[in-house]
Design goal:
This is Homeobox domain-containing protein. GO terms for molecular function: DNA binding. The protein is mostly helical. It has a domain of 57 residues: Arc Repressor Mutant, subunit A (Orthogonal Bundle), CATH 1.10.10.60. It is 64% helix and 0% strand. The radius of gyration is 21 Å and the shape is extended.
C-alpha cells in the first residue's frame, strides 16, 4: 500500500532532514593519523584549545579530532586491560 502525498516539498524537506542525521564515515590520511598519534602520546585528553589547534593544522574539524581521541582512548583502555591480564587476554564473559 503506497502513501500518496499532495506536497512534493514536504517529502523533499523530510529527505533533507534525514540526510543531516546520517553518519558519514571519514577516512584519515596517514599523515593525519601520525600527527594525532603523536598528540595522543603527550595527552590522552585534549583541551578544546588543543583540538582547535590540531584540527586547523591537519585540515579537520574540531568534532573529528574529538571523536578520534575518544575512539583512541577506548582502544588504549582495551589494550591496557588485555596486556594486564595474566594470560594476555581478557575473557569478558566470566562467571563465578
Amino acid at each position: 500500500m503506497a502513501i500518496a502525498t499532495s506536497h512534493h516539498g514536504q517529502n523533499q524537506s523530510i529527505n533533507e532532514s534525514n540526510r543531516k542525521h546520517q553518519r558519514i564515515e571519514r577516512q584519515f590520511t596517514s599523515d593525519q593519523i601520525a600527527a594525532l598519534e603523536i598528540e595522543f602520546i603527550y595527552a590522552k585528553y585534549m583541551t578544546r584549545h588543543g583540538r582547535i589547534r590540531i584540527a586547523r593544522k591537519l585540515g579537520l574539524n574540531e568534532r573529528q579530532v574529538k571523536i578520534w581521541f575518544f575512539s583512541r582512548r577506548k582502544k588504549w583502555q582495551n589494550e591496557s586491560r588485555i596486556s594486564n591480564h595474566p594470560h594476555g587476554y581478557l575473557n569478558v564473559n566470566t562467571t563465578n
